[in-house]
Specification:
single chain; about 150 residues; alpha+beta; Porin; 2 helices; about 40% strand
Length: about 150
């Protein structure tokens, strides 16, 4: 019985550790949770119900909602670059990730969308607390951060 309870406790702690909360601004209050990320799936608010799935990421493609149909692809991640839809043409570049910063089409400082450091998303290349857009409870993939910033 003791072993069974230990295994159940371990499983519960591992499943909870897989959840990453995204908070508005520099907050860590549960009332400020914008979305929850579990296994590269973005859920609305604190929910992990399938009906609240906003987008799913398989490492290459972002899908709208919980489906993985080609017609539901909203973005492609390849070589630190996000493309619109299924495209990988340079004309369809939406954003680029470089050195902890997400840029628009070009990697000029003036094109910086946000910087991610210490589980905080800062506006542009800022390092000021007043410029924190989002805060995460654990590290997230840069493509997930971009989609979250776009959707929320």
């Amino acid at each position: 019985m003791r072993i069974a309870m230990t295994i159940i406790g371990l499983c519960l702690s591992l499943s909870l550790a897989a959840q990453t909360y995204v908070y508005a601004g520099n907050s860590v209050y549960s009332s400020d949770i914008v979305c929850t990320v579990v296994d590269n799936t973005i859920y609305r608010g604190r929910s992990t119900y399938s009906s609240d799935i906003v987008a799913t990421f398989d490492g290459t493609y972002f899908y709208k909602g919980s489906t993985k149909y080609i017609s539901d692809i909203i973005a492609t991640w390849q070589s630190n670059t996000i493309y619109q839809g299924r495209s990988t043409y340079s004309s369809d570049i939406v954003a680029r990730w470089k050195d902890g910063t997400m840029y628009g089409r070009q990697t000029y400082q003036s094109d910086a969308l946000f910087r991610y450091a210490d589980n905080k998303v800062y506006k542009g290349t800022s390092v000021y607390t007043s410029d924190i857009i989002l805060r995460t409870s654990a590290s997230l993939h840069p493509a997930l951060l971009y989609i979250i910033c776009t959707l929320f």
